[in-house]
Amino acid sequence: MKDIARYIIDGVGSSFGASGVQVSVIEFSRIVTVDFYLNRFNNKADILNHITAMDHNQHETNLNGALYEPWSQVMTPGHGARSGVPKVAVLITDGEDNIDENGADVINPPATITNAQICKAQGIRLMAIDVYTNPEAYNFSRLLEIVSSPPNVNLYRQSLTPPQPPQYKHYQLAPGIEASIQRPQCVNDSCASGPCVNGATCYHD
Asked: Structure pTM?
């Protein structure tokens, strides 16, 4: 999981900080923790070193909480977010969505989709990487509900036991994922107001 995060961050740019690429990391198992905010680090090396030193919590999968933090805390001006700059959240998960907003064990709690919708309404593009050892073990369809449209550039699968199952060939983690993160984007998911910048095409969920 940490290796995937490092791989993505290493490929999205060379200029980091208040006038370049900004990165925040949110850890989620049963409890959700913002490990650091967008305005914490000003260079790539410090970010990568910090991620390397992090512990990896292998327990529950609180996607609801993981999607609440970007719109409510992380991607806000007080924590370094800049107006007019594209915002992207990448979920890296190897488990099934199973914790509700009260911390109870609930499979696919409705609040997860609510928080995903709020993120997208606030102009946060949602991407996901489904990390798996058994292609039948996790709820891939749940991630399809969460990510922004179109899913073929926002949802990827990463097998820990190759080869990839052919039915998921369009969602394999590819070397170009960092380019996909950098592609032109819309500042929100409502096409009616013409929100696209940099030549982007609007897709409305």
From this structure: 0.80
Of 29-38, 91-100, 156-165, the least confident: 156-165
Q: Which two tokens mark 68? A: 């609440």
Strand partners, 89: 126
How far apart are alpha carbons 69 and 115 in whole angstroms?
9
Structure tokens at 130: 């489904």
> 155 has which bridge partners?
128
Q: Which two tokens stand for residue 180?
A: 């996909």
Reading the block at residue 28, the tokens are 């989620």
In one letter, which amino acid is 98? Answer: N
Q: Which tokens hold the place of 189? A: 């998911």
Range 128-142 burial, b when 16+ CB lie within 10 A, else e: bbbbbeeeeebbbeb
